[in-house]
Amino acid sequence: MTFLLAVIVGALYAAGTYLVLRRSIVKVIFGLIFLGHAANLMIFTVGRMTKGAPAFVPEGAATLTEPFADPLPQALVLTAIVIGFGVQAFTIVLFKRTYQRLGTEDLDKMRSTDQLPGEES
Amino acid sequence: MYSIILATASRYLLLLLLMFSVFLLFRGHNEPGGGFVGGLVAAAAYALYFIANGIEAARTIVRFDPLRIIAVGLLMAITSTLPSLVAGERFMTAVWFDTGIPLIGKVGTPLLFDLGVYFLVLGITLTIIFSLAEEDRS
Amino acid sequence: MNRIIMLPILLPLCTAVIMIFFRRSIALHRILNTVSTALMLGASLLMLGSVRSDGILSLQVGGWEAPFGITLVADMLSSIMVVATAFIGFTTALYSLGAIDRKREHYFYYPLLQFLLMGINGAFLTGDIFNLYVWFEVMLISSFVLLVLGGRPQQLEGAIKYVTLNLLSSSIFLAAVGILYGTAGTLNMADLAQRIPLLDHQGLLSVVAVLFMITFGVKAAIFPLFFWLPASYHTPPIAIAAIFGGLLTKVGVYAIMRFFTTIFHGQDASFIHQALLIASAFTMVVGVLGAVAQYDMRKLLSFHIISQIGYMIFALAIQSPLAIAGALFYIIHNIVAKTNLFYLSGLIRRIKGSWDLREIGGIYRFYPMLGVLFLVPALGLAGIPPLSGFWAKFVVVKAGIDSEHYLLVGIALCVSMLTLFSMIKIWNEAFWKDDPRGEGGVEGEEYLRTPSVKKAIIVLPIVMLGCLTVAFGLWFEPFFELADRTACELLDRGAYIDAVMGERS
């Protein structure tokens, strides 16, 4: 299972990196989302997986009974997903608005903020 | 695209999903669930309604400004930290009150915090959905 | 007493929530914003005083003991940074009263500013790496929205670059956090400081260290990761650009300082320090060369931010107590001077109606006092005695010579000359030469329409920051003593670990 997840993480990173390097802003968004997912999945994987044992203290007991899954990576991933959700929603709106205002989705054409005044675009 | 089946179904589904979201919220007390999933399910209910009936209808049924809902959620979350200060505990420590009423039992600040999260998530998701929908029309 | 740590975070949060509730009442927003930042300044000074006299404060949030819960820690470094944040927040609040237009105020300018301050303060005060990630995101999201507020095409274009690169760095941050947790089993900074030297997987830890360096390198705009900065910082209104330019990159520098003194230290981190040294040289040179070529004041200042970051990183990479103290003093000096210069450029643009230095001139003739106000931070930035920049550079250079990094010291001094050159360029073009548009001097319409109360409000923060630059220079010793104590505390680590983990037997 860990091996499978590791392969998926690798694939997500590869796809994300490839997409982020593209010129189209739509692909860049997908790339960013993939990279975020890859990081989340990686935290989940390195937190060591335990099958079918949520970290809940059973009724009547004072402590967790072995084996239990480490709850911290899950909490981290959940938080990261929430943050990613908000940020990605903002990014999508931003990119869409930019496309509407500038009339292009080609990153190579968005050079005005980097140019010296008077330089040809 | 208007589908009469979806439009009719969404009215009943809205209620069901909202009830389910509240169930999830309270279940989060001792088992998997909680304010975040609850809020998402509630937002999904409205999203479904919006898909079936359009943005205007969805706006009227939500009634409150989503930003207001966010503010209410944040305020609840902040308020939930105050009892720990009054009780002289360390900041954000959970404080429980035993109401003694059957079925309700102990009520504590984590519940208030969870409610805050519920409203916050609902408000934010609705804001996102509404602004994306309006973006589309303009 | 240690509850005071919560104040710099809770105060802006509560203020922002109240503001959202009364979203139509802009007058209330303005008052609340000013009062809240003033209170934050008071609280942070109180906190600094308390940390100075009684040692490090720590708060285990929710009563969950470290390393299991989230710990908030206020040591000297954090408190000093929070004071700086509060001060810049306060001056920006004042400046915004005069300079931010009504439309932006309606679109939640003030609540966003509060959320931004909350994120920055949180990042400084947390003692947990994942929590640091969360605060970084709070800060970033607020800065994203502030950056695009107004929605001019240029802003959107700048924001695309800013958002993309910062999200990329966030995902690297997250990956690093994951691997670190997988290897060390904890994310509490103090706990990590204890455990890291004892772990078996030192190779993996080096990977983590490099990932963190890249993450914070992007945030701090170190060569070659700075490209988002000059592409975006000149697009928002100047009050926003000022708080970005003054504070945001410094959060990245703070994180580098914290990580590579407290957490990763000793032999294992030496290659990181080597890498930082090389990067710092390039950062200094590339930043200042970019600045020299510019005629747009905001772009010129944006490139200067990068160049100045180079000095801080240089000092950090040396790692001697003197160098760390120098880096801290440099950060504080730079926050004050840089923010001030941004404010001033906004004022110049208001008077003359243009950002382009070639199109304006003759300010000195009509506003000689403004010339003085400009020269204080400009010469301070270049490092002319007796202003703050002189001491900052003096300490950094001294530390460099002591540790025999002669080449880098040489580069730093040359870059100083170029900094002076570009500051003099602004002076020559904007203040001294005649206005190319005629003898009488053209005044921007915006300025003529501004009521004099607003003008006074805009000038007030400039005067405050200018006085601080002079004060840092003239009463260098007490400030440096603070910096020196901070450096010793950082390199010692024992007090920090004890304060967070409790005195273990």
* Secondary structural class of chain C: mainly alpha
* Biggest sheet, spatial arrangement of strands of chain C: 1-2
- Molecular shape of chain C: globular
- What fraction of the residues of chain B are assigned to beta strands by DSSP? under 5%
First and last CA, distance of chain C: 25 Å
Please list the strands of the largest sheet of chain B in the order they lie side by side: 1-2
Distance between the termini of chain B: 17 Å
Largest interface, C-beta closer than 8 angstroms, per-chain residues: A-C, 38 and 42 residues
Helix content of chain C: over 70%
> Ranges of chain B with pLDDT <50 over ≥5 residues?
none
Q: Proportion of β residues of chain C? A: under 5%
Outline of chain B: elongated
How many helical stretches of chain C? 22
Q: From the helix content, strand content and strand pairing of chain B, which structural class follows? A: mainly alpha
Radius of gyration of chain C: 22 Å
Protein architecture, described:
The complex is a heterotrimer of chains A (121), B (138) and C (505). Chain A has helices at 2-20, 25-46, 71-102. Chain A is elongated. In chain A, 29% of the residues are buried. Chain A has one domain (2-51, 68-103): Helix Hairpins. The mean pLDDT of chain A is 84. Chain A has 121 residues and is mainly alpha-helical. The longest helix of chain A has 32 residues, at 71-102. Chain B is mainly alpha-helical and 138 residues long. Chain B has one domain (4-137). Chain B has six helices and two strands, in the order H-H-H-H-H-E-E-H. Chain B has a two-stranded antiparallel ribbon with strand order 1-2. The radius of gyration of chain B is 17 Å and the shape is elongated. Chain C has 505 residues and is mostly helical. Chain C has one domain. In chain C, 77% of the residues lie in helices and 2% in strands. Chain C is built from 22 helices and two strands. Chain C has helices at 7-21, 26-54, 76-99, 102-106, 109-125, 129-148, 153-184, 189-195, 202-220, 228-232, 238-263, 270-293, 297-318, 321-352, 363-366, 368-382, 388-402, 406-432, 445-449, 452-474, 476-492, 494-501, and strands spanning 57-60, 71-74. In chain C, strands 1-2 form a two-stranded antiparallel sheet. Chain C is globular, with a radius of gyration of 22 Å. The model of chain C has no long low-confidence stretch (mean pLDDT 88). The chains are: A mainly alpha (121), B mainly alpha (138), C mainly alpha (505). Chains in contact: A-B, A-C, B-C. Chains A and C meet through helix 2 and helix 3 of A and helix 6, helix 7 and helix 10 of C.
